[in-house]
Amino acid sequence: MTIYEQIFLALDIFLFAVIIRLIRVSASAEVTIKVNDGWVVPAFFAVIAVIIFFRFDGLFRIIEIPCVLLMGLLYFKVGYGLNKEGIIIAGRLIRYEDAGELTLDKEKNCLTYLRGMSPAALTFSADQYEKIETYLKSLDKLK
Hints:
The chain is an alpha+beta fold. Helices cover 51% and strands 20% of the residues. Helix 2 (40-55) packs antiparallel against helix 3 (58-75). The mean pLDDT is 93.
């Protein structure tokens, strides 16, 4: 195995650890929010697997393709939601203290918050509005 292939395998281990951490944070969501773009990152992993198939051969290809496809499948478990600590965006927790003032827009079906110094929004389906509003009001995070 070349040094590049060894580096890729080390990156695989790192990415597995990151994805497992994102899944663990996602699992802490008390209110799960469904988003429409949950297929983008797994599709990216599938494209990488195709590139590996045509670019590499031997033992590396035999190991790497299943690893990359497994990471893509695991990423489907990374979610969005709310818990007592904050907003979960793709497995990353944004604490309510850091999110600034939260606003819920019924017309646009989105929750707006601050990401750093910039406003950001988490969109959701219309049928989730009541559940999200009730949960945030129970935590006294909405006005």
